[in-house]
Specification:
By secondary structure, the protein is α/β, with parallel strands linked by helices. 28% of the residues lie in helices and 13% in strands. Strand 1, helix 2 and strand 2 form a beta-alpha-beta unit. Helix 2 crosses helix 5. It binds iron/sulfur cluster (SF4). Iron/sulfur cluster binds next to helix 4.
Length: 188
């Protein structure tokens, strides 16, 4: 708590990197690259039920120059990969990449020549979010992992970073879905 009597002008001292990193981690702007069913879970993560806005990452941007977090949700075909790489390269540094779901990370059940068997063969991936599809909670854990890394970072170095390559292990106990409704004391 700030003592407003002894510090009438409310002076706070801190390190520049803490302020910069607090601002960076509280304002991640995702670039959704949603190609399949995982994209629906990505949309659910931004909905009122899971409320990605609590983490300051709800401002989805469809322009790479305004985004610093690429979320690849769904399978990527060999024809799509150059487009994905192009969008990634247009994003400004520092930027992060989440590979959401089995298809983006490994090709999933689509073990065929047309599907990329893991996007990390062609672009750096910071966090792998497992599942088919991952639940919104797991995606949020992936985003929080990036936030923790940003928080503990120094100021962003010039040039490219090495990919973090973290794999998220879900730590939540899912409750039955959908949650039953009670109307007039009666469960429906
Ligand atoms: S991981 Fe599963 S849910 Fe996600 S895109 Fe692939 S098949 Fe669909």
């Amino acid at each position: 708590m700030i003592d407003t009597q002894t510090l009438p002008d409310n002076i706070l001292t801190t390190q520049l990197k803490r302020v910069v990193n607090w601002a960076r981690r509280s304002s991640l702007w995702p670039m959704p690259f949603a190609t399949a069913c995982c994209g629906i879970e990505l949309m659910a993560t931004a909905s009122s039920r899971y409320d990605l806005a609590r983490f300051g990452a709800e401002a989805m941007r469809f322009s790479p120059r305004q985004a610093d977090l690429m979320i690849v949700a769904g399978r990527v075909t060999t024809k799509m990969m150059p487009v994905l790489q192009h969008i990634y390269q247009q994003m400004t540094e520092p930027k992060w990449v989440i590979s959401m779901g089995a298809c983006a990370s490994t090709g999933g059940v689509f073990d065929c020549y047309a599907t990329i068997q893991g996007i990390d063969q062609f672009m750096p991936v910071d966090v792998y979010v497992p599942g088919c599809p991952p639940r919104p909670e797991t995606l949020i854990e992936g985003i929080m992992a990036i936030q923790r890394i940003i928080d503990s970072d120094g100021l962003p170095p010039a040039g490219k970073r090495r990919p973090l390559q973290l794999a998220i292990e879900p730590s939540y106990a899912p409750s039955p879905q959908p949650v039953p409704l009670t109307v007039g004391g009666r469960t429906v």
